Amino acid sequence: MFEIAGKRRNRKKYGRKKYLFSTKNPNYVGIVALIAGIVSLGLFAALTVYSFLCKGQATLFIGAVGFFSIFLSISGIYMGFQSFNTIDSTYTISKISTLFNFFILILWITIFISGTYGLWW
């Protein structure tokens, strides 16, 4: 009699979902990596608009800020990979920040290569 009640209790009913509430917190290193990616994207947008307004004749300082933004993107990728090593935390933000920084790095590399070889799309 107890076995039948036990089987009935563990059986999933139709239309009801089982939820698991977790006490895991978001990873702080992943959040810092995401902030680095957002800053790098903001610098990309600002420098692109400034370079367009200067008709491609921007100063050397603008190029230095661009290289700093590339460094931010690379460090964001590194921090994103390092955030996977922590225990008892969620990895959603780590995955998003790593992919986001990788996308921004590819974007910066294509802009610098096209500027070096004088390519226009």
From TrEMBL:
Keywords: Membrane, Transmembrane, Transmembrane helix. InterPro entries: DUF6142. It holds the Pfam family DUF6142. The chain crosses the membrane at residues 28-53, 60-79, 99-120. This is Uncharacterized protein. It comes from Acetitomaculum ruminis DSM 5522.
